[in-house]
């Protein structure tokens, strides 16, 4: 009774500590799922040449709001064992176990068989223990030798094999789950540019690298442990209840089970939701890891600014949040563990003593297996030892079920993060994006972009790039250009210039499918017929050959008749043949982004362009680190390969390599003009084309 009063008095304290934990770390903002999950993805297939993908379903009201996007109030989700949790599990099971013929299903069945076999061995051991005790009390050497030595010498082999088979099967199941989930995550994340859109267009997910690696690993281990932690106790409850009914009466198992059910309900009321604690802990851990990754990625800039002290403050603050949260969570688990031990272990032990002694103390409860008045002392000791083993196993099984319920709350945290991750990827894959934004007038809101409801057309044509009344809009909803129209055909080289932030690079993001199209008609070639070269070229971690032929493999290059000799001629074209001698040949694996200079990387990227020979190339300041004479050579070579160029640059010297000029101003206005020999010669001074003034719009 005193323990119950103490527990009730502590309920308020536990909940107060839980609120302190929540207030110690910022609340996690989990966005509501966008509406209409069943829309078709317009980019799910690449149409044939000149095939039209039409999505002109927009009503007049939708057209008026298609750029501003209606906002939904931000709703906060909590990780708990509720209806949403079971719905998430229902969606994940087909990924984890795709069919009854899969390896995962075989491991699940094998683990169940091992668990059942382990329970039968526990039953055998309870009887064996009673027989050994009886032989000792009765001083029967023959029985003692037969049981304690010979029989146990035989049974220790299956005992050892089953125990280790349980560990092996459980870890194998966790590994199989991890591999299956990771493969699905890779397939979804790297499909249709989802990796870019999930990081840049949709901002619901944080620390995606953690979701793909650490969260999947912990989810898989926790699920495997839960399977064992629930299946084994359930089997134990059934079998040991049956044995106890025979031994000490039918009512005894039900009394124990009823007690544990009552205790479980009580403990659930005083226990904080550990699922949310785990969810918050994972988010804070991700923030800390992201801070360190930023330090590595921007080490040069931080060193130049002497910002080490400021970065240390940021990292220390992130670390303090993690430590404070874990410390307070550990305090909660400490007090929660005290109540678990008292009610689940010790009070249950007292009840077990009473149930075991009842057939001996009261003849009305005697059974044929315990309490027989004619039984000898040694027999009574054997019965007591055997039945106490049954009861201990039953109590432990029910206790493990209760603790499994606690682990289930923790598992709900991993499930929530993983399910939200896959939900966002599926939304992005269908062209549905949500962004969490703040404004002084509306507060925190979710802006949903559903490309399936926007009126636009995407046409695949390998001989044309064309914008017809296409608005250039950022994922956040900022309108850079209200309506853009231009076209580029083979042989028409376009130079785009304008001030920073006017939308030049945004055009290429729309062409490449990175940003959604908000209206109008967009004509673009198939991906293999267009190549984008940024100012900072991407260098893969691999050989020098890999840099030149990326994203192709060596076998794909050989199929295209590109031997090492032919690749060396490409290096010579851009003046980089010396790299083969300087760096040790084609097959040296290195971090080339650190080894090569800025100019070398840009020239190597141009050699990559000559290797692929697409019909169209988008060059975004891709020669800013090379001299003018080298730049002229690179552009002349591109035209010699028959590549139509769309360039972004402020260099007036590039005018002679283009036929048309597209200029933007800061207000979203633009003009297109023809470049002739007179105009580019008059601009041979290195005056920035972007600084040329526009005529007044009034």
Automatic annotation (TrEMBL):
Top-level taxon of origin: Eukaryota
Annotated InterPro entries: AAA+_ATPase, ABC1_TM_dom, ABC_transporter-like_ATP-bd, ABC_transporter-like_CS, ABC_transporter_sub-D, P-loop_NTPase
SUPFAM superfamilies: P-loop containing nucleoside triphosphate hydrolases (SSF52540)
Compartments (UniProt record): Peroxisome membrane
Keyword annotations: ATP-binding, Membrane, Nucleotide-binding, Transmembrane, Transmembrane helix, Transport
Predominant cellular place of this UniProt entry's protein: membrane
ABC transporter domain mapped to chain residues: 465-692
GO molecular function: ABC-type transporter activity; ATP binding; ATP hydrolysis activity; long-chain fatty acid transmembrane transporter activity
GO cellular component terms attached to this protein's record: peroxisomal membrane
Membrane topology: Multi-pass membrane protein
Polar residues biased stretches: 40-72
Keyword Transport: yes
Keyword set includes Amino-acid biosynthesis: no
Protein family per UniProt: Belongs to the ABC transporter superfamily. ABCD family. Peroxisomal fatty acyl CoA transporter (TC 3.A.1.203) subfamily.
Protein name: ABC transporter domain-containing protein
